[in-house]
Specification:
Its main location: membrane. With 574 residues, this protein is α/β, with parallel strands linked by helices. The chain has helices at residues 3-28, 34-60, 70-78, 90-115, 121-150, 159-171, 225-236, 259-270, 333-352, 367-372, 387-390, 392-402, 429-436, 439-442, 468-480, 497-503, 537-541, 545-553, and strands at 197-199, 202-204, 208-210, 241-248, 274-280, 314-315, 329-330, 357-362, 411-416, 446-450, 487-491, 532-535.
Length: 574
């Protein structure tokens, strides 16, 4: 038979194997994920090639030049790229025998385990894949050694022979299929909450992020073992992004240590997860004691003996936040530029530490928020007065950060969309909508919608999910004007599965600042108030919240392999 006929027969055989395997798997596990299905197909093909095709060679190697059946002719065709298969080479015989005896049957067993989602699939997959990789490395190494050291050439020089047979047909086993990160949906057609989202070059396996939470537990700016355990627990348990708490860019930005952040990032990456950081300047709310050290429910100034800097607290204007806070000094133009430079420099160090996502903190009464608000910004220079002047420090900060981070790195902005103040001019939802329309051009990819924190006279009607409608209102206004490249994150007392799901798949609503009802649809054609849910305190109460939400919604998700035995039992009340 000629080459075209043999290659066509081989391709037809692979197609038959894939088709029959697909039909069988769909009967055994109809809701299998695409990743698992492809892995099953791959290992069934491996099993067939290893056990039958390579086993044929191991059994008939002494008679290979005489074999005229289909497998014999296929081996003769392949031997054009490696003549050792026609010369009874001892290394080739040993390698093919081990492959046929060990990896052939094991591949079939593994495929069955993946199809039934058996807990032992992962260690077996690692063993087989590493075994195949080891064999491939030896195969290439011996050939290259013989060619460059001994001057022996086994492959014919035609590019199609060398690159098509010798290189291409062996390169597949260099790739080791691995497990999906925890929190990945294994069910078909999961709700949007458990569907992947790609922002720039980063793909998140679900839409649940851990919001930054101040822990007041750093040691002179250094992350400690506490942070590794605290943040690692969330990343390990399926959140697709864990954001490190508000991290000051001044006064010691130039010495802010990378090592601790890299340690956390490396752990998250080792679990296949993403890590973010929130860069911040506390402004007039700086130099305060940890909450558990001050009067209950109130802040207390951290004096110099406590490691504070009460005489050097700076704000956009010399306006004290309230009782328990230091008197701020109004920032000079040089101070403002120094802070902007601090954000830029901190972003560069975050990249060096291996951080995947950067969030700029422009909320909760911190410096950038206070620059936006007429309540706290009484300046008369280029950073005060008009609306355009008040947003200047924020926009310059965004530009500075975006200029030093990779093009493929997502940039987020957290903002207090309303200050919940009555009978006083303040920053409110229309201002946030106006600002949001400018953000895509500045390089911001997601607006993290929070609220309040800039005045002690704020009146918040707090309840579960109390900020979600604000996020939806902003998203509706953006969609109304055709702005769909700014993602929206919602946050605020999100505790239950159905609520989290509904925020990303809700019905059309009329929002007062967005105008008439807007049909706000996501990429799956479903109505949504937001693209991402950010959860904070509920994760402190329940580090495994991702798994509980998935269980409550009937979504099968990947657990960490070490925790597979701890999965929720069907019928359990969780």
């Amino acid at each position: 038979m000629d080459t075209l006929t043999l290659v066509s027969i081989f391709a037809a055989g692979c197609t038959a194997i894939f088709s029959s395997t697909y039909l069988l798997v769909m009967r055994v596990r109809p809701r299998i994920s695409t990743a698992d299905l492809l892995t099953v197909l791959w290992f069934v093909l491996c099993g067939c090639i290893h056990l039958f095709f390579e086993g044929y060679y191991a059994y008939n190697f002494r008679r290979m030049p005489l074999m005229q059946d289909l497998f014999g002719q296929l081996w003769k065709e392949y031997s054009l790229s490696d003549s050792r298969y026609q010369t009874q080479d001892a290394f080739v015989l040993c390698m093919e025998t081990i492959t046929a005896v060990c990896w052939g049957p094991s591949s079939f067993i593994l495929a069955a385990m993946i199809a039934t989602d058996h807990s032992l699939r992962y260690p077996l997959q690692a063993i087989i894949s590493l075994g195949q990789l080891y064999g491939d490395v030896l195969y290439y190494a011996t050939c290259l050694f013989d060619f460059y050291i001994l001057g022996l050439e086994y492959s014919r020089p035609e590019p199609a022979i060398f690159w098509g047979y010798f290189v291409f047909m062996n390169s597949f086993w260099i790739v080791i299929p691995c497990k999906s990160p925890a929190g990945t949906a294994l069910s078909k057609d999961p709700p949007t909450l458990f569907s992947p989202l790609t922002i720039r070059d980063v793909t998140f396996q679900n839409r649940i992020w851990v919001a930054p939470m101040c822990m007041y537990s750093a040691n002179d700016g250094h992350l400690t073992d506490f942070h590794l355990v605290h943040l690692g627990a969330f990343a390990y348990r399926g959140a697709s992004l864990t954001i490190i708490e508000a991290t000051a860019v001044r006064p010691k930005a130039e010495s802010l240590p990378i090592e601790g952040f890299k340690r956390v990032a490396d752990f998250a990456h080792g679990q296949g997860q993403k890590i973010g950081i929130q860069l911040a300047h506390a402004g007039r709310k700086a130099s305060t004691l940890p909450p558990w050290m001050g009067p209950r429910g109130k802040s207390a100034v951290a004096e110099e003996k406590d490691g504070g800097w009460p005489k050097n607290v700076k704000g956009m204007s010399a306006l004290k936040w309230g009782e328990g806070y230091a008197e701020p000094n109004e920032m000079s133009l040089e101070d403002i530029q120094d802070v902007i430079d601090g954000f830029r420099d901190a972003a560069k160090r975050a990249v060096a530490a291996g951080i995947d996502v950067i969030e700029i903190h422009g909320a909760h009464g911190y410096l950038l928020h206070s620059s936006l608000s007429p309540v706290t910004n009484k300046r008369t220079d280029q950073y005060g007065g008009s609306w355009e002047n008040k947003i200047r420090m924020l926009t310059e900060t965004i530009k500075a950060v975006r200029s030093v981070i990779p093009e493929g790195m997502p940039l987020l902005l957290r903002i207090s969309a309303t200050e919940w103040l009555e009978d006083v001019e303040s920053w409110d939802i229309p201002d946030t909508i106006k600002l949001a329309k400018l953000l895509p051009a500045l390089g911001v990819d997601l607006l993290d919608v929070s609220s309040a924190g800039n005045s002690p006279t704020q009146k918040i009607g707090m309840h579960t999910n109390y900020q979600i409608s604000i996020a939806g209102e902003i998203r509706a206004a953006l969609f109304k004007e055709g702005i769909k490249d700014l993602k929206i994150g919602c946050v605020g007392m999100i505790t239950e599965a159905e609520a989290a799901k509904s925020h990303l798949e809700d019905e059309p609503t009329t929002y007062p600042n967005a105008g008439e009802t807007v049909d706000v649809k996501d990429e799956q054609g479903k109505i949504a108030k937001a693209d991402i849910v950010l959860v904070a305190r509920q994760f402190m109460r329940e580090p495994e919240w991702v798994f509980r939400v998935a269980y409550r919604l009937g979504v099968e998700v990947q657990w960490p392999v070490q925790y597979l035995r701890a999965g929720f039992l069907k019928g359990s009340v969780i």
